[in-house]
Amino acid sequence: MSKETLIPEDAATSSEKASRYLRKKTTDIEPLIKFANGLIDGSYPSLFFPRKEEFLLEWWFDRAEAGMKNERFWQLFPKLWDQTDKDSRIQIYHRHKYLDTLKSVLQWISGSEEPEKDKLDYSHAKLAIRPVVLVSLERVSKDQIYMRTTNQIMVSIVVSYLKLTQAFEETASDAIARSVFSIYDNTLYGVLNYKKVSQALSSDGLVAVFIAFEKARRESYLYTRLGDIIRDLVYSPSIMKQAAEGVSGKKEGKKSTANSVDTVDSENLFKNLFDVLKSIPDIQQKGELLSEILGLGLSKFEKTKQKALMPKLCEAFLQFSPASAVYLIPQAQSQDMIMSSEVLTKALEAQAYKDWPLATTIVDLDADAVLPITDKLVHDNLTHAPSTTETVEFLCHLASAYARIRDLQAFMTLWKEELASAGDFEESSWKSESLVRNIARILSENWTIHQFSSAIPNREIEHEELLPLIAIVLACSRTADSLNDAFNKKLAALHEKLLSDDLKENYLAWRLRYLIISVNREVAKSVIASTDPNHLLNALISPEKKLKDRRVIYFMIQNILRISEFQLLENFSQAADYILTLLSPSKAKYESWDKESQSISKQNISTAMLHSTVERWLVLAENRFTPDQILLLAEALWHCGKSDKNSEPWSRLLDSPLLYEQVQLKNSLADLLVSQLAIGKSEDRDAIIKALRKSKSKSLDEADLIFKAIDALLQYPIESLRRSIRARVLDCLLLIDKYSSDLQLLLKSRTLIQKFLALPNMKSILQTNPAGLSSLISKSEELSDFDLDNITTDIMTAVFGYAVGGDSTDSSVQFLKDVHASAFDTLQSGGSVGRGTLRMFSLSSRYIEKSGSTIPDENLLKGVDFISDMLSQPKQKLDLLTQRSALLALGELNELLSFRRDLSVSGAVLNLIPGHVKILSSITESGANVTPEINISGQILQTIFGMVSSWNHDSVDGKLRDAQRLTTLYTSLNQISRSTSSIDSSLIRQKFKEKAKGWSKETFEAIFNQLLQISTHTENSADAESINTLTALLTVEGSDHYAFLTRRLSLLACTLVLDQQKITSARSYLDILKLFETVMKEKTSLITPFTFTQLFTFLILTSSQSGPKFSDLYSVDEVYIHICSTASSIILLLGRYFRGRHNLVIRLLENLLYGLCRSRKVAIQKLGAMNWKRASWLPVSQSCSVDCALAYSRLLANICDPNLSRSKASSNPKKRSRGENQAESDFALSSSSGTSRRALSKHVPFLITEYCYAATHFSFDADVQQALMTGLYTVFDIMGEHELAITNASVDATGRAIFKRLYEDYNKFGKWHEI
Length: 1315
Description:
Layout: H1 15-22, H2 30-41, H3 52-62, H4 71-83, H5 86-94, H6 98-110, H7 119-142, H8 151-167, H9 174-187, H10 195-215, H11 221-234, H12 237-252, H13 266-269, H14 271-277, H15 287-301, H16 310-320, H17 325-334, H18 341-350, H19 356-365, H20 374-381, H21 389-404, H22 408-422, H23 433-446, H24 449-455, H25 466-478, H26 485-497, H27 507-517, H28 521-530, H29 533-541, H30 550-564, H31 572-583, H32 605-616, H33 618-624, H34 627-641, H35 648-655, H36 663-677, H37 684-694, H38 702-715, H39 723-739, H40 743-757, H41 770-783, H42 786-803, H43 810-828, H44 835-850, H45 857-871, H46 880-898, H47 907-911, H48 913-926, H49 932-949, H50 956-976, H51 985-997, H52 1001-1016, H53 1026-1034, H54 1042-1058, H55 1066-1082, H56 1089-1102, H57 1116-1133, H58 1142-1154, H59 1161-1167, H60 1186-1200, H61 1204-1207, H62 1222-1241, H63 1244-1257, H64 1262-1277, H65 1281-1290, H66 1293-1310
């Protein structure tokens, strides 16, 4: 080891020797690093070294060049930097050239200065040193030091860093990128012309920028900043202007402006950019990257005078990379730019005419680029290729292009030619149904009746003309123009030409014939009069040659059915039999049929026929089919409905209101469904039991069909069923319910039972036989399902309600008593009692009381005792559903007994409260999805609340405990009701207020004081729910507690002013505002002048910079609008207190105004944070929305337009003379109104001055500014010349210009002028 590597023994004896040793100019820096580490770590405790940290940091900067490539040397930096105070390290930093060192080391790491030897060792050293170098940069950047240097050094640092991001993904983190680009920002501060910076980046630097831009994550900070660099430097306006002037100047011999870009050669204009891009491997194939770079240029030009260069830029990119046109052209399309047709055509040629989405984009952008090559494009590449969505879409857009140039006839000619070329190739795009319908739409929007008539030939029809003619006839039926007689005759003549033998086996001809007679009644009658419809019928029933093409059969049937609407055919019954044969379940396939494609085959013709029948021919079938044929049609429809392949016609049928007007068809379908429900047997019971027992097997059986039949009946309006069918269906449903164990089937069947029982005068076995009802209840107890329990309870309620209804008899009342007795015997038996039995006992008790009979109190009390004992069992033995049923039953029994005696709630019931509150509170806080279990817990708590609210103690202590328990439970329920619909917040609020109204003065005051203490001394949002409970108590009806509530409300307002910064929950803050709004609206008399002042002060403080900061999630707009709403309520309801307090209003308006501003970073830095007067809960980078601006304008209008209650402060009727007439009263009102406006007008100049200040240093979004104007105009309405002069004198030159423009707008748009 050399002597240089050893640390001298006397180096640590004194600070002087230590500093002299460290400053030793040696080539081996390792001993110095070791010694410096020892000084930092305290390895030399006897050494006194004053200001050691500052010296070592200074030493580090001095030796940075020597230790630049040493990992341990860089590891020293964070330690030294952190241990030195901020002021000292900033001073040391500015005395040295840290960025020069950073530039050198980053160049070395990135490989810009690779040594000639020891490459492997240096490679390892680079990997080790890279993270600590970047850590040092982060440390410096965190202190917000002004890191400014020369352009060359800054560019070198940025380029080296970008090269590192390509190799090491972690170096592209947002924190490191922000540190690097802070150097970039500081260096460019104040630079207006980016030309020098662009030159400094050089070709190599730009390549690094582009490559890093490609690899950066789209949501990262690095991607955003690189995009800004490309936009600002590559597309700098000065560079673009110079390039435009230079290129056009060479051609014209003089300078030209950016507006004369038509003479600019785009290839030469952006030559430098593309020279750089060529350095990136495979760049011409990277269309997505090129489109992003192009997008940056377009967004830059959009806001500059070089906007005319945008088309040239797009053309240059297309010439540079035609293969990327699919990415580049949509960019141009989004900017509505016009590029040369030659460039677009070349882009299409580069894709070998096969990129149909690109072709669609180009034809929309510039039809002239496509129309000249249409023949080559479609004939060679599209006509004989299988149809796809892209090719059909291109043809539709091509037709639209022909429509735009008013030459649709040329497209129709092209269509005929290509159809002739396609021949029998059915998959050609030209034969697509989607194309036909789209062209029909285009024709209907562009052609007149005369053009339609001209397009219909007067000669024999060729096969290739059929599809275009179909489109024309479809368009005729959609056109807004009325069809004249001449055109109707033209259609009838066309129909006659379609009768030729050459076309009789072409389904398109049959389809066209059907469309012609469907255009209107006149054409149909004319065709029928000139042809023999029976000949058509015979051609279908007994053709000379068997029809093999199912499409021909389908459209022949459509023709026959259409003609049958006008004329009764002799052999129509045979035609109906033929149709029903096609639909016969034994022969039909019922495969899926696409209505849009109109593709008909042997497999799906039956489905297609059912579709057309349901949508078009229901009325015809009802009137022309025989009863047997209607039954066969119903069987076909039901067979399709129970098919798993395609049940759409069945669903459409049930949704069609037209079905229920067809009596025969409706009844036939109902008979079929009932027959299916009863398994089609005469003995329903045995058949259903057998089917349900078979359902345990895996194969498809009759139980599945029962399920589908029930599902169909649920969609069916059962009130339209015949009474005999209703009774049979209900009996079948009860059998199904009894013998089925499938939960879904039971849910469906019981829902249907419930619907039947809801019908008037609907009788069933359930209303006479208690055993049937018990069977239903026992089944629901076995399955334990929330929905099934609810439906079962509804069924019991319907049965008991029928027994005590208007048609009740002694036997029905006796039925109720038998049910009650059966349930009571079960309770007394001492065995296990299910939840259904409990509900049956309580519900039957309630309905017996309704019938006028009375149940002995002993029976009810025994039920109460039994349920209380049941609830006292260990929690795990009682599931949620049983708890709910027991509590609902207990509540109903308590309600019955409360009319005759006072009852108390057992401790077992009260013990259930904490567990359910905990469950629901956790759900509320976590925001989890609401489940049936959560709804059950909510119902349990609401039931307990109802019982507790009816509980009365005789002793004072007992009443206080009851009130405390009720208040706690109400507070919890009120919070929980926000996340579950099972708790009716309005109902529990009403019950709570009714109960609180009956409290004694001592109890009321004790509860209120406890709530007030909790609400004002907690930061927990859950405890803050007490605010809502306070709101309920403050609005209790009656005046018994008026003086107490007035004092406490004043105390609450004063406490909120003092402790407003302790509010950390936005929800609590909104609840406070809601409390005062509710009190103002319901109990205005509780607000004293002192409370008014404190409340307004609270609003001012919470809307200022010294206000609270919220830690929970909240909507900025919601908070802002609530503040405006509360302020408006104060102004409208408490206007009598405003005299002498207008300064408070103006201060609040000034604070709220800044919430509508958008911050400017430069303005905040220049003016200081104190001048940025936004509320603490408003994000710095976000402004409030236009809804907030509208709320602010409404607030201004309420202030500046005094209402009656505010303006007539001195209009006390007692102070008026009895002889005062109506005119004098009106004069007094207008006079006091004017006085109020004059008092306010003295203060509004301060508000307008504040607005001018905000508009000068900050900005308003356009929509916010527009919404704000309405309110500012009302302010100007109350300002006189004196106030306008004060405002004009209060603002600076910039503010005066804003004020002048605002006043001019007011005079033009806001001021009322007499005509």
